[in-house]
Structures are given as C-alpha cells and as structure tokens.
Amino acid sequence: MWRRILSTTSASARHHFVRSSNNTNTNTNTITNLTINRFLLTSSTSNVSNPFQTTAPLFSQQSASASASASVGKLRVEDVMPIATGHEKEELVASLQGRDLLEMNHPAGPFGTKEAPAIVQSVYDKRIVGCPGGEGEDEHDVVWFWLEKGKTHECPVCTQHFKVRGF
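RESULT FIELD:
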C-alpha cells in the first residue's frame, strides 16, 4: 500500500516538476532534475526496511505441513496444532477421527420409556443427568439425579426413563 502511494506521489511530483521546469531557464531545469532524482531515490528505494511490510500468516507453515502430511498419510494433531495438550488435544484427536467428543453433553432423542429408555453416553460409570421433561405441556423444572451404568432411572416428575451407555 505504501509503495503504491509513494509511486503515485513520485509520478505526480515528476509531472509537476517537469511542467514547472518548462517555464524556467536551463540552470533551474538542472536543479529541478536533481531534485526529482533525489526525491525519487529517497521515496521509492530505501535500504531501511519498511515498518509496514506485511507478515506471513500465523499458521502458514503449519497449514503447509498439514497439507503435505495429509497427502502422504493420515493427518495428525501435531500437524494441525503442535502445542495442543489436555482436553484440547483430545477434542482435536476426536475431530480428526470423525467423531464429536462433546456430543455426550447434549443428548437429544425421543421420550424414554421403560422398554426403550433415553440413552445418555458417558465415559464414566456414573453421571449426573438433568431431566427437563417432554415437549410442550410436559415440560417441568429440571430435575437432577445420578445415573449409574447398568441401571435405568425414572424421572419422578414425568416418568421418563434414562440409561447410561459407555463409549
């Protein structure tokens, strides 16, 4: 952007200086040409680095390595985000495998009956579950209870049944 502005100003300055020099004598014309050359040299070519130069995108090297490794083999977490640790790394591993790690936090499905209880996924043997009731008039305040693996639990308000299933 700055180079564009400088080249525009240098071209207009050159045009202005040449136009004004046509009306003067040769001595002034020589001084004007020297001024033009000095102006053009200082404005367009400078050995000092420009503080407004664009930088490379933040993840350009990482995205290049990710595309290279994707063409060679499977994509790894280190290719996507090399400093990922803990839960963030688990989420990235799951998304690269094509599954959503956090889908267990928002279970949705049909109303659970005794024959076909609503399935809640959990990594652990026990989990706290909240029952908001059914839809429409069947809704009630959220009732919280512990759900254990291998047992079904019935909501005391709406009689919906829940069951835990592990991954």
